[in-house]
Design goal:
- By secondary structure, the chain is an alpha/beta fold.
- It is 51% helix and 10% strand.
- The protein has helices spanning 13-26, 32-38, 57-68, 83-90, 103-115, 131-149, 159-164, 166-177, 183-192, 215-218, 221-238, and strands at residues 2-7, 73-77, 94-100, 154-158.
- A four-stranded parallel β-sheet has the order 2-1-3-4, sandwiched between helices.
Length: 242
């Protein structure tokens, strides 16, 4: 079984990926990076987090070969659904967990990340410098959100729910993936990725502030009006207050 963790940029994608990966491994699955190496899938699955930058048949078909041989593993992406991915979902050969966040907080995080850019950063939004830049950048990812929202048999998780109702969201993941995990292992994994805690020594979970609605205190009035005017109908559809 292929398990795809897909996320809106700056919505806790890597935090969620590592949580799901560890849950799958604890249930008898494999690390996607190990699958990449074992089956010589380096041209199709990237590093460091078993990444697929697209989920077209060209990449997803070879990446799915280990699943045909009985392997279960998690791959990571920001990409939208394709005809081939929908086929794999409908035939029961792939499950997708999609995570999103209030786009105003995504934009705040993008601008903060871009502002402290380091030479090793490679994210495509590093050139985003203004709220207007970020709104333009986010267009495609909001279309991707709509695409996954309309894809049947996809588990959709809001970042804010992951923060405020973490245990419930973990149970939803376990139920959706039909995982069987011993209680002691589950408790340990949940403790590692628990939000609102300082990272443990030697454990990098790609989790920074762990707060919701940060945009309300960090954008000025003009910036907030620009964001709210741009996203008013979308925010309502997503379940967020203006």
């Amino acid at each position: 079984m292929i398990i795809m963790n897909v996320g809106m940029p700056r919505s806790g994608t890597l935090w969620r990926y590592k949580l799901i990966r560890d849950l799958v491994i604890a249930s008898g699955g494999k690390d996607g990076v190990q699958i990449r190496n074992k089956y010589f899938l380096q041209p199709f699955i990237g590093l460091p987090n078993a990444d697929l930058n697209t989920i077209t048949a060209k990449r997803l078909l070879p990446a799915s070969i280990p699943s045909i041989l009985g392997e279960s593993y998690v791959l990571n992406s920001h990409a939208g659904p394709t005809n081939f991915s929908q086929y794999l979902i409908k035939t029961g050969n792939m499950k997708v967990i999609y995570g999103f966040r209030d786009p105003r907080d995504c934009i705040l995080s993008i601008l903060e990340y871009s502002g402290r850019a380091l030479p090793q950063y490679s994210a495509s939004f590093l050139k985003v410098q203004t709220v207007e830049d970020a709104i333009k950048f986010m267009e495609v990812y909001l279309e991707i959100w709509e695409g996954w929202r309309e894809t049947e048999n996809t588990l959709i998780l809001r970042y804010e729910d992951m923060i405020e109702n973490y245990d419930s969201c973990v149970e939803r993941i376990i139920s959706y993936l039909d995982l069987k995990i011993p209680g002691s292992k589950l408790s340990l994994i949940k403790s590692i990725y628990l939000p609102k805690q300082k990272p443990k020594e030697g454990v990098k979970i790609h989790f920074e502030h762990g707060k919701v609605n940060r945009f309300r205190d960090n954008f000025n009035q003009n910036e907030l009006e620009t964001l709210n005017n741009s996203y008013q109908q979308l925010l309502i559809k997503m379940g967020y207050e203006i």
